[in-house]
Amino acid sequence: MHVDRDTLATALYVKIDDELKASPQLNRQRPRVGITPKITDAELITLAVLQALLGHHKEARWIRHARANLTHLFPHIPKQPGYNKRLRALGAQITHLIQVLVLDTDLWRHPVRIADSTPVECGRSRETVKRSDLAGWATYGYCASHSRRFWGLRLHLVTTAHGLPVAFALTTAKTDEREVLVDLFDLDSGLLTHPDGLILIVDKGYRDATTERQLTERGVTMIRPAYRTEKPRPGRTLLRAMRQRIEPVNQTLKGQLDLEQHGGRTPAGVAVRVLQRILAMTAAIWHNWHTGQTVIRSLTAYDH
């Protein structure tokens, strides 16, 4: 089946609209009197997904582009302040919808998971650091993979072997990624378990006896690089074959979905923009799976 931006937008809108109607607890309370919004939450979230897929990290430019090119899909597009305000209030709904799309595929049933973390830069100048509303949450950190220091947050991801996000967390840059990994399994809603036991592939940053023991108690077999003083560990072939799959996921978020150009200036703003990009990637994988595409994680059909 041929896929393009419009087919994804239509299918995603229908899925989101059905889910929001079936889950009234997700609908925000509105006053009985006042002006009724001309664009629904389902339309707004779909519009936000297209913004991420098309690489528009400036909201004002995105609204101009959408009004010029997407009115056949969205007859009523709000102005930038209204779009921004409503999007920031939809973090809980977006988080829920990511899980809904994941569960609507068979990819999450695969017993292998891959964990990693990546920086989310929030500023570069010292003046930005001093004035930012993110101060206190955003901190200085170091990315060993790219040998660079940064000021911002760290996105922790657990994906399937196909690159589908099943768990994630946004923390300070200095938070121990091993602690976050254990917390993600403690907060698991079913996507981090498997009837036959889960296999978790990690890099050397997660090597820790306590972490490995805690995950083993949760039915997880950790596949990780061995220490120099250790005997060769089981699963080395699987580690070599699967370990590089998380890096393309991070590159998709940063290179195609502009994760580090999110433009957020407040905790709520940064959080929803990160969720926006995770939802966009999840939606593309979800649609590719349903339409039988050869490359499940490809965004090429939707980024123009």
What descriptors fit this protein?
15% strand, alpha/beta, 304 residues, Nucleotidyltransferase, domain 5, single chain
Topology:
Blueprint (H helix, E strand, L loop, with lengths): L4 H18 L18 H13 L5 H11 L10 H9 L2 H13 L8 E12 L2 H6 L7 E5 L4 E13 L4 E8 L4 H10 L11 E4 L7 H9 L2 E4 L12 H7 L3 H11 L10 H24 L14
Parallel strand pairs: 1-5, 5-6
Antiparallel strand pairs: 1-3, 2-3, 3-4
Helix pairs in contact: 1-2, 1-5, 2-11, 5-11
Structure description:
It is built from eleven helices and six strands. Helix 1 (5-22) runs antiparallel to helix 2 (41-53). The two termini are 18 Å apart. The longest helix has 24 residues, at 267-290. Strands 1, 2, 3, 4, 5 and 6 form a six-stranded mixed sheet that branches. The protein has two domains: 5-101 and 294-302, no CATH class; 109-263, Ribonuclease H-like superfamily/Ribonuclease H (Nucleotidyltransferase, domain 5). It is globular and about 65 Å long. The chain has 304 residues and is α/β, with parallel strands linked by helices.
Considering the protein shown, what is the CATH homologous superfamily of the largest domain? Answer: Ribonuclease H-like superfamily/Ribonuclease H
Which CATH top level class of the largest domain fits?
Answer: Alpha Beta
Average pLDDT metric = 88
Report the end-to-end length measured between terminal Cα atoms: 18 Å
Structural class: alpha/beta
CATH topology of the largest domain, which one? Nucleotidyltransferase, domain 5
Which bin fits the share of residues in helices?
40-55%
Which stretches are poorly predicted, pLDDT < 50 over at least 5 residues?
none
Largest sheet: 6 strands, mixed
Give the overall shape, derived from the CA principal axes: globular
What's the CATH architecture name of the largest domain? 2-Layer Sandwich
**What is the count of DSSP helices, taking H or I runs of 4+ residues?**
11
Number of domains: 2
- The tally of strands reads 6
Could you give the order of the helices and strands?
HHHHHEHEEEHEHEHHH
Assess the beta-strand content as a share of residues: 15-25%
Instruction: Return Rg in Å.
Output: 20 Å
